[in-house]
């Protein structure tokens, strides 16, 4: 049975799209059939981060409105063939989404994939609502700063009231993905510590993604960080998070960049 | 339908009139149920017993007596007593006993940013935290077994005796019976610690919860 996962945060710019791409790729790398859907109609980005912007012909809105079928709109990743993308439309807005259309698309995808990952737009309006509506599981992307944490708290409240699962009286599983974390600055008190965030949000932790220039580099390359540089610290953190999603128990650590002993020794002298 | 006989005093004369009536229309009472209204006669217990015996002898089937104290009906006639007053009614279904109105609300989950818990009937207890941007409104007191980071509005119906208790005070706004305070300038020793808040005159008081 397919698992519908929503990646959401309330606040913008915290790493939803980056995390959707990285987690989607990481799950697909383990052989799972994965589709990532961009719900940010009008401000689509997932196609860029996935490096598929020049391959978009039909999009989510075309499928929702019945102008195209899923086979026409789904874009298969060139690097991992179990990974697919359903892009959003850039020329339309969120009003083009309909409840019946979205439900039909999700149900169709359930027959084809193991994981359906919905990349939610920022905010708590229509787009975010449709992205979370059919989810079984939510990944809350949060930065270690107060405004992001409060917005995440707001989204958790909505997940517990506005989703199909909540309306059936079931408990929605919510997992925290703490992104852009810098252990040194957290220790100095410049940003919230992991425990502070967990204490405020009181949901289980899926992973801690360290702040790293690798993330931006991968985005600009049009590649999920788990594919662009799998041994980088953020990639290892995402890969661990993906294995936790599959039910594995992996100790929670904050990966750091590996500096080779010799590189550290000689790099300095050569400079 | 029952026939109502209302004897006028003196009873003996009335009985004679009754005999004349039955003589003119034999079988007038034949089997008809009769209710005897003795409010005009006001008979003693003995007189009433005699009257009922006389009627029985004339074939009048009395099914009830009204207009007298039920105690005046003695012996075999006691069953004829009819309730005084009351109203005509068919079979009434007794209304369900109303469930006692809850005077306390317990929330087992954290109150998230943007959510409002409102309870106009009494106290609210939160087993968890109240997030920044969340709001709890209660007619009575508010108890938070976690961090209070949002707004707590107690005594909302005008109860100045309501209080607020929390395990970690970090509230954005506190109010009791319309008297409110923001906690920007709260004593540093109180912030982040267990606290109780109550209304003293026109001012909220905050103290550590020992």
Strand order of the largest sheet of chain A: 3-4-2-5-1-6-7-8
Parts with pLDDT < 50 across at least 5 consecutive residues of chain A:
267-271
Give the helices and strands of chain A as they follow along the chain. EHEHHHEEHEHEHHEHHEHHHH
The total domain count of chain A is 1
**CATH architecture label name of chain A:** 3-Layer(aba) Sandwich
Q: Give the structural class of chain B.
A: alpha/beta
Largest interchain contact = A-B, 12 and 14 residues
pLDDT averaged over residues of chain B:
85
* Strands ordered across the widest β-sheet of chain B: 4-6-8-10-13-14
Q: How much of the residues of chain B is beta strand, in percent?
A: 25-35%
State the end-to-end distance of chain B. Answer: 77 Å
Q: Total number of helical segments of chain B? A: 2
Radius of gyration of chain B: 37 Å
Give the oligomeric state of the chains in this entry, treating copies of one chain as homo and distinct chains as hetero.
Answer: heterodimer
The shape of chain A, in one word, is globular
Percentage of residues in helical conformation of chain A: 40-55%
Structural class of chain A: alpha/beta
Number of strands of chain A: 8
Assign an overall shape of chain B: rod-shaped
Helix content of chain B: 10-25%
Uncertain spans of chain B: none
GO molecular function (chain A): ATP binding; ATP hydrolysis activity
Pfam families (chain A): CbiA
Organism (chain A): Hansschlegelia quercus
Subunit structure (chain A): Interacts with MinC and FtsZ.
Structure, explained:
Chain A: It comes from Hansschlegelia quercus. Chain A: Belongs to the ParA family. MinD subfamily. Chain A: Keywords: ATP-binding, Cell cycle, Cell division, Nucleotide-binding, Septation. Chain A: GO terms for molecular function: ATP binding; ATP hydrolysis activity. Chain A: Pfam families: CbiA. The complex is a heterodimer of chains A (271) and B (210). Chain A is α/β, with parallel strands linked by helices and 271 residues long. Chain A has one domain: Rossmann fold (3-Layer(aba) Sandwich), CATH 3.40.50. In chain A, 44% of the residues lie in helices and 16% in strands. Chain A has helices at 16-29, 46-49, 60-64, 70-73, 99-110, 126-133, 146-162, 164-167, 183-188, 194-201, 213-221, 225-228, 233-245, 261-270; strands at residues 3-8, 34-38, 75-76, 83-86, 115-119, 137-142, 173-181, 205-210. Chain A has an 8-stranded mixed sheet, sandwiched between helices. In chain A, a hairpin with a 6-residue loop joins strand 3 (75-76) and strand 4 (83-86). The radius of gyration of chain A is 18 Å and the shape is globular. Chain A starts with a strand and ends with a helix. Mean pLDDT of chain A is 92; it is low at 267-271. With 210 residues, chain B is α/β, with parallel strands linked by helices. Chain B is 13% helix and 32% strand. Chain B has 2 helices and 14 strands, in the order E-H-E-H-E-E-E-E-E-E-E-E-E-E-E-E. Chain B has a 6-stranded mixed sheet with strand order 4-6-8-10-13-14, with no helix packed on it. In chain B, strands 5-7-9-11-12 form a 5-stranded mixed sheet, with no helix packed on it. Chain B has a 3-stranded parallel sheet with strand order 1-2-3, with helices on one face. In chain B, a hairpin with a 2-residue loop joins strand 11 (173-176) and strand 12. The longest helix of chain B is centred in the N-terminal third of the chain and has 14 residues, at 11-24. Chain B is rod-shaped, with a radius of gyration of 37 Å. The interface between A and B is medium-sized, with 12 and 14 residues.
């Amino acid at each position: 049975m397919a698992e519908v996962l929503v990646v959401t945060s309330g606040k913008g710019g915290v790493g939803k799209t980056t995390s959707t791409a990285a987690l989607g790729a990481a799950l697909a790398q383990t052989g799972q059939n994965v589709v990532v859907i961009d719900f940010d109609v009008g401000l689509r980005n997932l196609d860029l981060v996935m490096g598929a912007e020049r391959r978009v012909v039909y999009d989510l809105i075309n499928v929702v409105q019945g102008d195209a079928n899923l086979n026409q709109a789904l874009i298969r990743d060139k690097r991992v063939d179990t990974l697919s993308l359903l892009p959003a439309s850039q020329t339309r807005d969120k009003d083009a989404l309909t409840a019946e259309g979205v439900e039909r698309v999700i149900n169709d995808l359930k027959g084809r994939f193991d994981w359906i990952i919905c990349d939610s737009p920022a905010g708590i309006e229509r787009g975010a609502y449709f992205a979370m509506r059919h989810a079984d599981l939510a990944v809350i992307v949060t930065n270690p700063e107060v405004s992001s944490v409060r917005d995440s708290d707001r989204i958790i409240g909505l997940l517990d009231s506005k989703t199909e699962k909540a309306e059936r009286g079931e408990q929605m599983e919510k997992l925290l993905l703490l992104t852009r974390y810098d252990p040194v600055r957290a220790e100095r008190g410049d940003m919230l510590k992991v425990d502070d965030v967990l204490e405020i949000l009181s949901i289980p932790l899926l992973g801690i993604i360290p702040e790293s220039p690798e993330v931006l580099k991968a985005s600009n390359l049009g590649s999920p960080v788990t594919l662009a540089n799998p041994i980088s610290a953020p990639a290892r953190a995402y890969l661990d998070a993906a294995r936790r999603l599959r039910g594995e128990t992996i100790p929670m650590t904050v990966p750091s960049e590996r500096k080779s002993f010799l590189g550290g020794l000689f790099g300095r002298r050569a400079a | 339908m029952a026939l109502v006989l209302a004897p006028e005093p003196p009873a003996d004369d009335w009985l004679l009139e009754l005999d004349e009536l039955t003589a003119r229309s034999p079988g007038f009472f034949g089997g008809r149920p009769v209710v005897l209204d003795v409010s005009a006669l006001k008979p003693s217990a003995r007189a009433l017993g005699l009257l009922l015996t006389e009627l029985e002898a004339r074939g009048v089937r009395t099914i009830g007596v009204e207009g007298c104290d039920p105690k005046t009906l003695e012996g075999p006639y006691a069953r004829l007593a009819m309730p005084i007053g009351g109203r005509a009614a068919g079979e009434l279904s007794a209304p369900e006993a109303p469930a006692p109105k809850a005077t306390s609300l317990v929330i087992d989950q954290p109150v998230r940013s943007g959510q409002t818990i409102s309870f106009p009937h009494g106290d609210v207890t939160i087993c968890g935290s109240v997030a920044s941007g969340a709001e709890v409104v209660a007619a009575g007191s508010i108890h938070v077994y976690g961090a209070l980071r949002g707004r707590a509005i107690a005594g909302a119906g005008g109860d100045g005796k309501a209080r607020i208790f929390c395990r970690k005070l970090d509230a954005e706004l506190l109010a009791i019976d319309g008297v409110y305070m923001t906690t920007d300038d709260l004593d540093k020793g109180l912030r982040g610690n267990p606290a109780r808040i109550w209304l003293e005159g026109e001012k909220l008081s905050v103290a550590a919860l020992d």
